[in-house]
Design goal:
two-stranded antiparallel sheet; coiled coil; TPR_TTI1_C; TPR_TTI1_N; TTI1_rpt
């Protein structure tokens, strides 16, 4: 039988092995013993591969199986004897390693019969442990000068395989089975305590110093088995300090494997649980530490008095030795708790600082298994050892808060599990009442720590503290409200320090998507489902990353969710009022920022709102907030003339205050309509602010108000409340000294709405004009002019929209008539007929051959009217006569009113043309430019106005300020475009001499001053190329076209900064181009303009200047092409072809060059740089 054959083989090997027990060791026997051990290993491998149960079923008896168990016991006994005598004297590490390999196999087979709580079984296992420990390197503490063998046995001198085999044997001896009954604590004698102290020290020595990570891991696992084997708290407490220190050194070793670190942390948790857990302390889990709830009764008073008497009697008696012993244990426990707290602080220091700074402090946290082990260690400290390690409770709690936000799900779930145990079952009501004040104090301590480290520590460390604070608030919830409210002033001040405000980043816009309101009003059709609100990004001084800023703002919202709203609102405005009394107002922006984030916690769309139902911000609190905001000096202080140049602190604070109104609207929703009449005008006043931060905040707040109160847009909101605006504006426009921002309100209304939505705008315009008359010499001129500019722009925009609508509604006949305009002759006859018949149009006059004459006469759509030649007094007399093209008077009533208003505005502009302030003067000129464009289709009103303003405009060309000169030139160009003959007659004698003197001072040759370096010149991105252009370049058949396009391109400098000089030059060149196109009186100036402006064809000039100069030359060529051709040909060094006939006897080859030399005598310095662009003009204009 197979089982019988295996049993006989096993008996033979056992007999051969037992023979070595009685022999004296020598080299030959060592070799023979090693062979026997090799055969035993092979036998065990063979037995492990065979299913013994099937063999026993086939055999029908279990005698062989019983025999194999007996042989196992005999082999185990023989090996135990050989370890202590025969093999101990051998110097062969291979023999020792083979022996312990066989021993581990046999121990595994005999383990069911060795495990037990009887003294015999315990003593047997201890004997095996003693024999195995002899082969481990002794710890440095056990070295003895009289024992030379211990000195030679070191970790470096012993093979790793031997130590692994010894450790496996120890693990087989000490490890308990999972299905084993509850283990009883082993009562160790004094000698046993010393022995286990040596075992623990040896295992820790291997765990700390062994370079083999598997050996270190096995040593820690064996140490855990030793602790579980002893299970005597009094005995284990003697080893606890050394175990804790050794495990810490092993886990914190350089480049330690994560498996070893995890095993060390688990062994540390096991040691703490077995030594100082709550169930092992006097009184059990609840003994001694919990205080009974006081009872305020007479019986309780009597019992208290009796206990005091008994205590006094006990003090007089002799001291009890048991009491002295308990005091010693208590001192030991306190010392151990302090040391462990220090160790945990170093262990948890690996969080943010070690990773960010790259230091070696703390444990490596890259492995998620290590973080899970840390969570399990915190579980042991907080749940199992809460009484003994009370000082470390909050340290572990802080670490768990960090682990809860871990990116690995297993780590976060492990930390959450600990919190659930702590909150649901572990803490009793008495413990919660005791811990709650301590946790509140801990919260304030952490907040103070964050304030102290806010300007010095790494940002990751600060975010770590922020997450810890968030964890405290989320765990405690509303139960921490009374403690925070009691110290609200200090908490609010500390939070202001944390969120020290830097600025509003106007280069980065963030978008907030508002959800639909929960309870819309009856006008549900006017409510949009969702709306996007745009605001500037907030920048904090001590937090640079956007994720960090979000963490801080979320912390503020979560803290605000557990605070009493009335309390933090009162605290905020107290701090703001105290700040307003100071000169520089430190911290005003921070106070408002914290208030806004506190209030956001009560918005219906915020997640904190779902967790907090016991507090709310009602209409009364919002009314108190709005009332206190509007009475603060900071609301209007940044817009006053005395603080125009103040720091950004006022601007940021005002922007955040405006944002607070939007948050209040988001909280109340439709109920915010109660405050519209109170808050709408101040908001629109901030909408016209000089700073873009305040303007954007006001626009966002108004959009929120429109959304939550049921309006479609701002125009609908302003239209429904226009009567309120008109009453306030008309009253305040006459009192600008008391209300300096009134003009800004008008400007904001007109900027964000249309005139059609402002039915009472005529009253506002009339009041605005009266205010201009009253304050024309005051500092309020700038605001009034900007308001007039917005009014005029709105009028022009509405007129253009009305014209577009009229074009879409024209009939076929009118559309066909507009497509085919009359010829110049027909137009002249029609206008003469109108003048003769007092506005009554006569019949169309047909002319023979009219079609041919019409085709032969060149037409120009912008040609000036013949009425421009009539006296100006004629238009003034006929001002009230109906225009031939106006049509129905009822339809043009609004247009006539607008024209009258524009004329009144332009007449007021004459007051400020002589103003020395460049900004005001440029605003006036811009107003004139836009007004002239608006009145361009109404020459009867325009021409008299231009004639009156011309003497006042012309002196503006002689000022030294380039911006004023540029604006004046643009106005003259607009006048030339709308009243060509009027300007053309005066341009030659009055305007051109001034412009010529200015052009002579502007040069762009190689010796000219180079422009300054700007940021745009440093951009690395290149301009994109059009796709069609790329296709043309890639196409092989377009080489000739590419060459032709290159020849026709102007050579100039690209990317040059446009200085005021360049802007002035471009305006002058554009003005000359328009005047040349509109008036033929410029013909006699063509030679002079050509010679003066030809230098701007230089390739060293900016590209915009060269292009505008080429357009000017094209316009000059229409007036006198011969003169322009001579100059351009001379610049281009153009050679005409040789005459084909001998009829030109006077022609010589150098005749052209002689002509060029005479013609370019005054332009010798520009001929070389202008040649390339002159050649391009030859091809463009004269080819």
């Amino acid at each position: 039988m197979t089982i019988m054959a295996k049993a006989l083989t096993y008996v033979e090997l056992c007999t051969r092995l037992s023979r070595f027990v009685q022999l004296e060791p020598n080299d030959a026997l060592y070799k023979e013993l090693q062979d026997v051990l090799e055969e035993l290993v092979m036998f065990y491998d063979n037995m492990d591969s065979v299913d013994l149960s099937s063999l026993l079923d086939d055999c029908g008896i279990d005698v062989p199986f019983v025999g194999l168990a007996a042989m196992d016991e005999l082999v185990l006994f023989s090996l135990h004897k050989l370890i202590g005598s025969f093999v101990l004297t051998s110097s062969s590490f291979a023999l020792q390693e083979r022996l312990f390999v066989v021993l581990s196999r046999v121990l595994h087979r005999c383990k069911p019969r060795m495990i037990g709580n009887s003294p015999e079984q315990v003593q047997r296992r201890l004997s095996f442990v003693q024999s195995c420990v002899l082969y481990l390197p002794p710890p440095p503490e056990a070295n003895d000068a009289h024992n030379e063998s211990a000195e030679t046995l070191t970790i470096s001198a012993q093979p790793e395989e031997l130590r692994l085999a010894v450790l496996l044997c120890l693990r087989e001896v000490l490890e308990e089975r999972e299905q084993e009954v509850e283990k009883q604590a082993v009562q160790l004698q004094v000698e046993h305590q010393h022995f286990f102290a040596y075992v623990v020290a040896s295992l820790l020595n291997v765990a700390q110093r062994d370079r083999c990570r598997d050996a270190a891991l096995q040593a820690i696992e064996v140490l855990k088995c030793v602790l579980l084997f002893v299970q005597d708290p009094q005995s284990l407490r003697q080893y606890l300090p050394g175990i804790v220190a050794g495990l810490w050194k092993s886990a914190n070793a350089p480049q330690q494997a994560s498996k070893v670190i995890v095993a060390a942390l688990q062994a540390l948790a096991t040691a703490l649980d077995l030594c100082i857990s709550d169930e092992h302390l006097p009184g059990g889990e609840d003994g001694g530490m919990k205080q009974e709830q006081p009872r305020f009764t007479l019986e309780a008073i009597r019992q208290s008095a009796e206990s005091n008497v008994n205590d006094m009697q006990g003090m007089e008696d002799a001291q009890d030795p048991v009491g002295v012993l308990s005091n010693d244990n208590q001192k030991w426990l306190e010392t151990t708790a302090m040391n462990l707290d220090l160790l945990l602080s170093r262990m948890f220091a690996a969080s943010a600082t070690a990773i960010a700074d790259g230091t070696s402090t703390g444990l490596p946290r890259s492995s998620w298994r290590v973080r899970c082990a840390l969570a399990q260690l915190c579980d042991t400290v907080m749940l199992r050892c809460r009484r003994a390690l009370r000082v470390s409770f909050f340290r572990c709690y802080d670490e768990l808060l960090v682990l809860c936000s871990d990116a690995i799900t297993e780590v976060a779930e492990e930390a959450d599990t600990v919190f659930e145990k702590l909150q649901m079952s572990a803490l009793s009501s008495e413990e919660q009442l005791r811990l709650l004040p301590e946790m509140a104090d801990r919260f304030q301590m952490l907040l103070s720590t964050l304030v102290l480290k806010i300007a010095t520590e790494h940002e990751a460390t600060k975010v770590h503290l922020v997450r810890t604070l968030r964890g405290y608030v989320n765990f405690l919830g509303p139960s921490i409200t009374p403690y925070l409210d009691a110290s609200l002033d200090s908490i609010y001040t500390s939070l202001c320090r944390v969120v020290s405000f830097a600025a509003l980043d106007i280069e980065l816009v963030v978008h907030q998507l508002l959800p639909s309101p929960a309870e819309p009003n009856e006008n549900s059709d006017n409510i949009r489902a969702r709306v996007m609100i745009s605001q500037f990004q907030k920048r904090l001084r001590f937090f640079n990353e956007e994720a960090s800023v979000r963490e801080v703002l979320e912390m503020l919202r979560e803290i605000g969710a557990v605070l009493t709203p009335a309390g933090f609102i009162d605290c905020a405005f107290t701090l703001l009022s105290e700040a307003n009394m100071e000169v520089r107002e430190p911290g005003g922006a921070e106070v408002v920022l914290v208030l806004n984030e506190f209030l956001r916690a009560y918005c219906p769309s915020n997640e904190c709102r779902k967790r907090v139902v016991h507090q709310s911000v009602d209409v009364h609190l919002v009314g108190r907030i709005l009332e206190d905001l509007l009475v603060l000096d900071s609301w209007n202080k940044h817009n006053s003339s005395s603080n125009r140049g103040c720091s950004k602190a006022f601007v940021s604070q005002c922007a955040l205050m405006v944002e607070c109104i939007g948050v209040c609207a988001e909280i109340l929703g439709a109920e915010f309509k109660l405050f519209l009449l109170y808050i709408l005008y101040p908001l629109v006043e901030q909408l016209g602010s000089h700073s873009v931060e305040v303007e954007r905040a006001a626009l966002a707040a108004l959009e929120k108000i429109c959304f939550f109160t049921g309006y479609k847009c701002l125009e609908a909101l302003f239209q429904d409340n226009m009567d309120y605006f008109v009453d306030a504006l008309c009253a305040r426009l006459e009192q600008l000294d008391a209300y300096p921002m009134t003009a800004s309100v008008v400007e904001a209304l007109l900027r964000h709405t249309s005139l059609a939505s402002l039915p009472l705008v005529d009253e506002v315009a009339s009041s605005l004009l009266r205010s201009v008359d009253l304050y024309q010499d005051s500092p309020h001129v700038d605001g009034l002019l900007r308001a007039l500019k917005s009014l005029l722009s709105s009028i022009a925009r509405d007129a253009q929209e009305a014209e577009c609508k009229k074009v879409h509604t024209l009939g076929d006949d009118e559309l066909e008539k507009s497509r085919h305009p009359r010829s110049l002759l027909s137009e002249f006859i029609r206008e003469m007929k109108v003048l003769e018949n007092d506005g009554i149009d006569g019949l169309e006059i047909e002319i023979e051959g009219g079609d041919k004459e019409t085709c032969s006469v060149p037409e120009h759509s912008d040609r000036a009217s013949v009425k421009g030649a009539m006296p100006l007094e004629y238009d003034e007399i006929q001002r009230d006569s109906p225009d031939s093209g106006e049509g129905n008077e009822e339809e043009n009533t609004a247009a006539s009113a607008y024209r009258t208003l524009v004329i009144d505005i332009m007449e007021r502009c004459g007051y400020f043309l002589v103003n020395s302030d460049p900004i005001a003067c440029c605003l006036v000129l811009s107003l004139i430019d836009e007004g002239v464009r608006f009145l361009s289709k109404h020459p009867r009103q325009l021409l008299p106005l231009v004639a009156r303003m011309w003497p006042e405009i012309l002196p503006r060309l002689r000022v030294e300020n380039r911006a004023i000169v540029t604006s004046t030139v643009r106005v003259i160009a607009t006048l030339a475009e709308t009243a060509g003959d009027f300007v053309g007659d005066r341009f030659v004698e009055t305007v051109w001499p001034i412009l010529r003197s200015q052009l002579q001072l502007i040069h762009f040759d190689v010796d000219a001053k180079s422009p300054q370096l700007t940021r745009s010149m440093l951009l690395l991105s290149k301009p994109t190329i059009d796709d069609s252009h790329v296709e043309d370049i890639r196409s092989p058949s377009s080489d000739a076209e590419i060459q032709k396009r290159t020849d026709n391109e102007l050579s100039a400098v690209s990317g040059v900064r446009k200085t005021q000089e360049v802007h002035q030059l471009l305006a002058i060149l554009s003005c000359l181009t328009i005047v040349c196109l509109q008036s033929e009186t410029m013909t006699k100036l063509v030679p002079e303009i050509t010679r003066t402006c030809c230098k701007y064809l230089s390739r060293s000039a900016p590209r915009e200047v060269v292009q505008q100069t080429s357009e000017l030359f094209a316009a000059l060529a229409q007036l006198n092409g011969d003169e322009v051709f001579c100059t351009v040909a001379a610049l281009a060094d153009w050679n005409p072809p040789t005459p084909p006939s001998a009829r030109f006897p006077g022609y010589a080859p150098d005749a052209v060059q002689r002509f060029y030399r005479d013609h370019l005598a005054k332009l010798s310095g520009y001929a070389q740089t202008c040649r390339d662009n002159a050649c391009v003009l030859i091809n463009r204009i004269f080819s």
